[in-house]
């Protein structure tokens, strides 16, 4: 006959509880890692390697590419004059080397110098007082007096509200550089759709400059350059990727908590 040892059974139960708790923590940690570090395998494979540059590709073959569609004026028919060197609709008498066809390259002079200083202050105060009384009310005021109330001041309402708001914006941005862009599309009115991307790798950091937009051929300079201020629907992006950018970014867990936590 085996003797019952309550202390041994209690220790066994505590051990099983600790094992279950450890297993649950391990599963939760594994789930968090699998959810947050989706790109961890690629980053592990690139340890000690320089960031790879993107391959030059046709923008029309990229996913999500859509031709630009803008409101266009009515087309003007072209008429040819015999024995004349001038062609109707031509923008120049002699042909130049400025970009004018799909695939041509031109240089965009990016110069962004923005500075904004805004200061707003709003003060508002409002106070209201309402009073109601009946000094003589067909003799009923005597009963009101016996009840301990003043008939001349039966009801008084007071309200007061105030607000004080201040806002200040001080911003200064500057970006000066040049980037070559390719004509990817010609609109029916002759305007050119440009797209350019530049990648520069220094050690383990890649700097990217992306420029896109719509320009008029008349705004292109004689040296085949154009100012970024003359680009319509301009999309200019300047950033980087690599070890320095990765260190500057919050961890995946911190970003997830910033999104989920309400405070």
UniProtKB/TrEMBL annotation:
Keywords: Bacterial flagellum, Cell outer membrane, Cell projection, Cilium, Flagellum, Membrane, Signal. It is found in: Cell outer membrane; Bacterial flagellum basal body. GO terms for molecular function: cytoskeletal motor activity. Residues 1-39 form the signal peptide. GO terms for biological process: bacterial-type flagellum-dependent cell motility. It holds the Pfam family FlgH. It comes from the Bacteria. GO terms for cellular component: bacterial-type flagellum basal body, distal rod, L ring; cell outer membrane. InterPro entries: Flag_Lring (IPR000527). Assembles around the rod to form the L-ring and probably protects the motor/basal body from shearing forces during rotation. HAMAP family: FlgH. Belongs to the FlgH family. The basal body constitutes a major portion of the flagellar organelle and consists of four rings (L,P,S, and M) mounted on a central rod. This is Flagellar L-ring protein. It comes from Phreatobacter stygius. The gene is flgH.
């Amino acid at each position: 006959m085996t003797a019952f040892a309550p202390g041994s059974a209690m220790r066994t139960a505590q051990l099983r509880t600790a094992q279950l708790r450890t297993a649950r923590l391990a599963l939760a940690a594994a789930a968090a890692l699998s959810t947050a570090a989706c790109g961890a395998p690629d980053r592990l494979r690139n340890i000690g390697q320089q960031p790879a540059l993107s391959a030059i590709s046709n923008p029309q073959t990229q996913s999500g590419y859509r031709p630009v569609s803008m409101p266009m004026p009515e087309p003007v028919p072209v008429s040819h004059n015999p024995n004349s060197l001038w062609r109707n609709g031509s923008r120049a008498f002699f042909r130049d080397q400025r970009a004018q066809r799909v695939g041509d390259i031109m240089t965009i002079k990016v110069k962004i110098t923005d500075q904004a200083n805004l200061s707003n202050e709003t003060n508002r105060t409002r106070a209201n007082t309402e009073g109601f009384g009946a000094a003589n009310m067909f003799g009923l005021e005597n009963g009101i007096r016996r009840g301990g109330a003043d008939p001349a001041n039966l009801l008084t309402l007071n309200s007061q509200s105030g607000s004080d708001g201040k806002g200040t914006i001080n911003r200064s941005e500057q970006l000066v550089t040049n980037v070559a862009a390719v004509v990817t599309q010609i609109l029916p009115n002759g305007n050119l759709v440009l797209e350019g991307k530049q990648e520069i790798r220094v050690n383990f950091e890649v700097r990217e400059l992306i420029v896109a937009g719509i320009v008029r051929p008349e705004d292109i300079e004689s040296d085949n350059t154009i100012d970024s201020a003359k680009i319509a629907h301009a999309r200019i992006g300047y950033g980087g990727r690599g070890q320095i950018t990765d260190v500057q970014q919050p961890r995946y867990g911190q970003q997830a908590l910033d999104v989920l936590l309400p405070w």
